[in-house]
Amino acid sequence: MENWDDLRFVVALARYGTMSKAALHLRTNTATVSRRIKRLNETANTLLFQKSGAEWELTTEGRRLFELAAGFSDDLRSFHATTPSGLQTTQTVRVTALDFLVSTVLSKSLNAFTCQHPNVTLELSGNNNRVSLAYGEADIALRLTRPTEGRLVAHRIADIRMGVYGPKNYNSQDWIGLTFDLDWTPEMKNGLAVFAREPKLRMSSFQAILQAIRLTGQPGILPEVMAKEAKELELLQPYEEMRLRELWLLYHETRKEDVVLRSTCRWLEQSFATMTE
């Protein structure tokens, strides 16, 4: 194979599924991705990908090449990250976390991060979507549930207290909860126990719940760290009956010697340690 750089395009297309997403990841355009993949097909004298609906999937031969290329890429990244120059080279670290953690905790520590990591670009993605740490869709994930599958390193870094909050002297008989698919969570079970009825309004995020509380005057479930910033709200249940959610910091085991990733993990841990002070 004459151009090893083409392998980056195989890895990106395999991981992201579409040429547009692969191009975005590689900071190029769709035409370049298509041209590089076509050149690799011709070099290998076989098809490496086949179209499946809106996405591209690896063929058997493509899978073999992807595993070689991905392994080489991860090994090279780990080697570079563990050298003394690892922290001196510009690189990007992508962290995915729930929206409220980004807005109420991590945003307050950004100055500390930029001072500690002048050569690192930090991407904070506020969502709870399933991402593959193995395929590089994110470098670090903060989740309220510990995964039971995958080769992940998991550290419990905080407990997030959840409770029922509402405006002072509220008089509504209704309440605001999360969407039906989240009724299994401790915070929703808590709300159902406190009010003994289904919520009148359901939202997909705690930010939306907070906004709805302010607009309707109805109480709802919120993380304590969010509610403390909303001075007009008060806790509507005994403090000791609030529910705790474990916050887990996750990354793929192949990254455990990565200097920049480890340093970012320390910043995250410090951010949540400050939250409890």
Question: Would you kindly provide a written description of the structure presented here, covering whatever features stand out?
Answer:
This protein has helices at 7-16, 19-26, 30-44, 60-81, 99-104, 110-116, 186-195, 206-216, 224-227, 259-275; strands spanning 49-52, 55-58, 91-97, 120-126, 140-143, 152-167, 176-178, 201-203, 220-223, 233-235, 243-252. The strands form three sheets. Strands 3, 4, 5, 6, 9, 10 and 11 form a seven-stranded mixed beta sheet that branches. It has a two-stranded antiparallel sheet with strand order 1-2. β1 and β2 (55-58) form a beta hairpin. It folds into two domains: 4-81, Winged helix-like DNA-binding domain superfamily/Winged helix DNA-binding domain (Arc Repressor Mutant, subunit A, Orthogonal Bundle); 86-277, D-Maltodextrin-Binding Protein, domain 2 (3-Layer(aba) Sandwich). The model has no long low-confidence stretch (mean pLDDT 88). α1 (7-16) packs across α2 (19-26). The termini are far apart. It is built from ten helices and eleven strands.
Most strands sheet? 7 strands, mixed
CATH-defined topology of the largest domain = D-Maltodextrin-Binding Protein, domain 2
Structural class: alpha/beta
By DSSP (H or I, 4+ residues per run), the number of helices equals 10
The total number of structural domains is 2
Distance between the termini: 56 Å
The helix fraction, in percent, is 25-40%
Listing every helix as H and every strand as E from the N terminus to the C terminus, the arrangement reads HHHEEHEHHEEEEHEHEHEEH
Average pLDDT confidence is: 88
* Number of DSSP strand runs: 11
Catalogue the unreliable spans.
none
What percentage of the residues does DSSP assign to strands (E)? 15-25%
Radius of gyration: 23 Å
User: What is the name of the CATH class of the largest domain?
Assistant: Alpha Beta
Going by CATH, the architecture of the largest domain would be 3-Layer(aba) Sandwich
Shape: elongated
